[in-house]
Amino acid sequence: AQRVTQPEKLLSVFKGAPVELKCNYSYSGSPELFWYVQYSRQRLQLLLRHISRESIKGFTADLNKGETSFHLKKPFAQEEDSAMYYCALRDSSYKLIFGSGTRLLVRP
Amino acid sequence: SAVISQKPSRDICQRGTSLTIQCQVDSQVTMMFWYRQQPGQSLTLIATANQGSEATYESGFVIDKFPISRPNLTFSTLTVSNMSPEDSSIYLCSVNRDTEMYGGTFGSGTRLTVV
Fold first, then answer.
1. Which residue of B has its CA nearest to A50?
2. Considering chain A, what is the average pLDDT of its residues?
3. Hey, is the C-beta of B72 within 8 angstroms of any chain A C-beta?
4. Which stretches in chain B have pLDDT values below 70?
5. Measured distance CA(A86)–CA(A3) in Å, rounded
6. Which of A51, A44, A53 minimizes the C-alpha distance to A83?
7. Contact call for A44 and B43, based on CB within 8 A
8. How far apart are CA A10 and CA A93, in angstroms?
9. A–B CB contacts, 8 A cutoff, strictly below
């Protein structure tokens, strides 16, 4: 079955600390994985896609097929990173399957 | 990426009534999706709405409860019918293009409260 798991509901770190938001997936085919972010009172927006191997706002995510993971990382968290983060898998029909989300709280 | 206008942004409705949510895109897109986000929950796909064909519903969602229209490549509506308090959620439309890099764009959502 297709599934995306984000084990942490809340991750609280201090400004300047490293951040890792965990995401594991279950998918029988070749996965297309994304991270979405939702800042307070804003719409959901795409943050990262695994295929492009990019760094956005200092965040990176590497697809590890062996561990079926796509963890989101940032070496030094900023207060403006506080938001809800969703990991999502896109299937062959372009539907997105979302994880339950992790709220990141960066304390000053 | 596409720009989506979704309305209404919020509404409070009486149980037993229906609400139609509109989603307008600034460019033609093949695939449109409707999601629901219940309070404190993640997003769940309701249905896929492709122009020129019937919407495809996910398990647990039926056309009688959530009828969808897709009259052209830039517009879609989702109706929440015969509402009950359990339908109180945020409803979002999303579009996607059949390109590998594209992760999809979301509307701002409709916050529905059923009383």
1. B101
2. 92
3. no
4. 97-103
5. 13
6. A44
7. yes
8. 31
9. 50
